[in-house]
Amino acid sequence: MELKTVLLAVGPGDADRSAKLAETVLEVATPADATVVLAHVFTRSEYDDVLTRLEFDRDLDEVDPDDVAGRHSTIRDVQAKLDEYDVDYEIRGAVGEHGPAIVDLATSVDADRVVVGGRRRSPTGKAVFGSTAQEVMLSAPCPVTFVRSDDFDD
After folding, report:
1. What is the separation, in whole angstroms, between the first and last Cα of the chain?
2. What is the model's pLDDT at position 58?
């Protein structure tokens, strides 16, 4: 299968693994000359918090989730790495429950691969990846690459 579009979905817990996520996306996208879609999915409360923290003017028109995502530090970290390697990318933001929103984004951008992050599970937690990663792996319209961090999550 030819890779044309790779979706990298990041969320609030991914700041500590942005370098690892960027490396993985480069390994997947660069040989295929694929476009990377950098996506940040916010729940409604996370989105409202980010709008306040980043001082978006809500009195103007409706704030575009793509603009909010583009100002998020994790997206900017990965963006810098992709710029360094001259990889084509676009930035997308979405508001909703993480798992379903990532699957919807993968479908809407016609992704050939999805990359998501998560924590290494403790022995008691190994049966489940985590609700977001598990939902994406089970529901995505394409193969999913799971990038784990080295810290444990029960």
Report:
1. 36
2. 65
What would the two tokens of residue 38 be? 């950098």
- What is the domain range of residue 32? 5-127
SS3 29: helix
Instruction: Note the pLDDT of residue 126.
Output: 47
> 72 is written with which tokens?
């998020």
Residue 152 placed within a domain: no
pLDDT digits (tens, 9 = 90+) for 46-56: 888 888 887 77
DSSP string, 38-65: EEEEE-HHHHHHHHHHTT--TTSSPPPH
Task: Give a yes or no: residue 154 inside a domain.
Answer: no
Q: How many domains does the chain have?
A: 1
Cβ 79 vs Cβ 40: under 8 Å: no
Q: 65 to each of 2, 47, 88, 109, 112, how far by Cα in Å?
A: 29, 8, 20, 16, 23
In a domain, 137, yes or no: no
Task: Reduce the DSSP state of residue 85 to 3 states and report it.
Answer: coil
